[in-house]
Amino acid sequence: MNNIVLYQPEIPGNTGNIMRTCVATKTKLHLIKPLGFIIDDAHLKRSGVNYIDKLDYEIYENFEDFKSKNEGEYYYFTRYGRKPHTEFDFSNKDKNIYLIFGKESTGIPKEILKNDLNHCMRIPMTDNVRALNLSNSAAIAIYEVLRQQNYYGLLKEEPNDGNFKGADWLEK
User: What SS3 class is residue 140?
Assistant: First the structure.
């Protein structure tokens, strides 16, 4: 199972966007306190649109609480990582993969990162910015995992029911 972990997220809009991405990708979201917002904040719901009721998520008191309840492979996104995210093998869809992102202002604490340097990664970018937006980074990361897993369990065509127009809409 694929998982996105937000360590002490501060901005409700970023978390809301990540919630929507998690629903779209069948990814579980893990939120580690303290949160910089109330989970039912109107801004958070607006960013997640009307998909929050479909979200699989859990909230933890701290990083130790999270670790005690989740076994698998942890991958840390940090500007201090020395390998790009594309150099890791995420192809085994049967593994529990946890993509861990830090809070917007300071990232993941050094005390956590230094214990697993081999799993610290960086999304390549120029020296004109310190980091990408959190929700953009999470989307880039989960879609790399899914690409390596051939988008297992996801639709590759527009459905033909409900609010969708169908796979052949462009041809009509």
Answer: helix
Please tell me the distance from the alpha carbon of residue 159 to that of residue 69, in angstroms, as a whole number.
36
DSSP codes, 28-71:
EEEEESSPSS-TT-HHHHHHHTT-GGG--EEEESSHHHHHHH--
**What is the 8-class DSSP label of residue 171?**
G
| Whole-number pLDDT of residue 52 | 77
pLDDT at 37: 83
Please state the length of the chain.
172
In order, the DSSP letters of 65-128 are HHHHH--SEEEEE-TT-SEEGGGS----TTS-EEEEE-BTTTBS-HHHHTT-GGGEEE----TT
Q: How far separated are the first and last CA of the chain, in Å rounded?
A: 37
pLDDT tens digits, 111-130: 999 999 999 999 999 999 98
At 7, is the secondary structure helix, strand, or coil?
Answer: strand
| Confidence check: pLDDT of 3 > 60 | yes
Burial class, 138, CB count within 10 angstroms (exposed 0-12 / middle 13-18 / buried 19+):
buried
